[in-house]
Design goal:
Number of strands: 14
Distance between the termini: 39 Å
Number of helices: 9
CATH architecture of the largest domain: 2-Layer Sandwich
CATH topology of the largest domain: BirA Bifunctional Protein, domain 2
Shape: globular
Strand content: 25-35%
Bound molecules: ligand BTX
Order of helices and strands: HHHEEHEHEEHHEEEEHHEEEEE
């Protein structure tokens, strides 16, 4: 039924088609029409919905550019500006430059290529041209600085949800910031922030999703994968559209101080909980067993002395003993 609705929208791409017209033509209720339209939006189709007019398929091309990005972001109040770049050092660095120039706006930066893509703790993120979705959200949530780092979990859940909605892949989440498909990393998230003791200025949420790479540099060939390598071809635009919808839902819960659904999502997809891991800090590496993810997004582990210990995401790297 969804594909029949899509066909109708494509046939009427010049104008709006009302819910009533669609329900009459396909013999289904208007509620069913609305549900299928929502599912299509979840899959990345950009459909404008206007009261008293109906639905219009805004963009049927899979190309991500300034105008398709603008259409995609219209619905989200946490995106007040967009910037689409051909190349940049790092979308996170660009977001921070913008944040310093102006003090209010929130927005989204996407680049076809990054020449100095960054991972956590000074590591490098391979970001070849047109091979992935390289993006950063500049956000100014009204939360305390100590709540800021759990936004990494919000975006990991939203991107896992988006990839699963657009593909048939099962996505695992390696706490707190990596998405894993068939034992390999397909997406990484780097959260940076500017804050004083009592005041958060901004958060930059950088997300990289591997889309079309068929090979990787030799040092990561065993641990990295892309959607294409996993046999799926999906555009960055579809993934981004599905991500924004899922993120906006989880983000509003986070802003209300409710992490329960986000934590449940993590627990259901976690490749970390119930595993032996190494906790790597700048001064030491030690073994631990992961018991749970706490309500605030921190990790509960049992250390080598048999004691329970809480691990916060900003401080450490957690590495599985047998792969991710
Ligand atoms: P991370 O520190 O958890 O992961 C970085 C590690 O992952 C690297 O040391 C390497 O082993 C491996 N790696 C490097 N590139 C890739 C890749 N393309 N796919 C899979 N594995 C890789 C994860 O850090 C956070 C990455 C965030 C990337 C986004 S892209 C948009 C934004 N801008 C920016 O500079 N960074 C973020």
């Amino acid at each position: 039924m969804k594909s029949k609705i899509l066909d109708l929208l494509q046939l009427n791409s010049e104008g709006y088609l009302s819910g009533e017209q669609i329900s009459d033509q396909l013999g289904i209720s208007r509620t069913a029409v609305w549900k299928h339209i929502k599912a299509l939006k979840n899959e990345g189709y950009i459909i404008d919905s206007v009261n008293n007019k109906g639905y219009k398929l805004l963009s049927d091309t899979d190309e991500l550019n300034s105008s398709s990005l603008k259409a995609l972001c219209n619905d989200f109040d946490f995106i007040q500006f967009i910037k689409f770049l051909d190349t940049v050092d790092s979308t996170n660095s660009e977001a921070k430059r913008i944040a310093m120039e102006e003090q209010v706006l929130e927005g989204l930066i996407v680049s076809s290529e990054q020449t100095k893509g960054k991972g956590r703790l000074g590591r490098q993120w391979e970001s070849e041209k047109e091979s992935g979705l390289w993006m950063s959200l500049l956000l100014r949530p009204k939360v305390k600085p100590e709540a800021a780092s759990s936004i990494t979990l919000v975006s990991a859940a939203a991107m896992a949800h988006a990839i699963e909605a657009c593909t048939s892949l099962n996505v695992g989440i390696k706490w707190p910031n990596d998405l894993i498909v068939n034992g390999k990393k397909i997406c990484g998230i780097l959260t940076e922030m500017s804050a004083e003791i009592n005041q958060l200025h901004y958060i930059v949420l950088g997300i990289g999703v591997n889309l079309g790479q068929m090979s990787f540099p030799v040092d990561i060939i065993d641990k990295a994968t892309s959607l294409k390598k996993e046999g799926v071809e999906v555009s960055g635009k579809k993934i981004l559209s599905a991500f924004l919808l899922a993120f906006s839902n989880f983000y509003s819960q986070y802003l209300e101080g409710d992490m329960s659904q986000i934590i449940s999502y993590h627990l259901a997809h976690s490749v970390t909980v119930g595993k032996k891991v190494q906790i790597i800090t700048p001064i030491e590496t030690r073994n631990a067993y992961v018991l749970d993810i706490n309500a605030d997004g921190s990790l509960l582990v049992e250390n080598e002395l048999g004691e329970n210990e809480v691990v916060f995401s900003g401080e450490v790297s957690v590495r599985g003993i047998n792969g991710y």
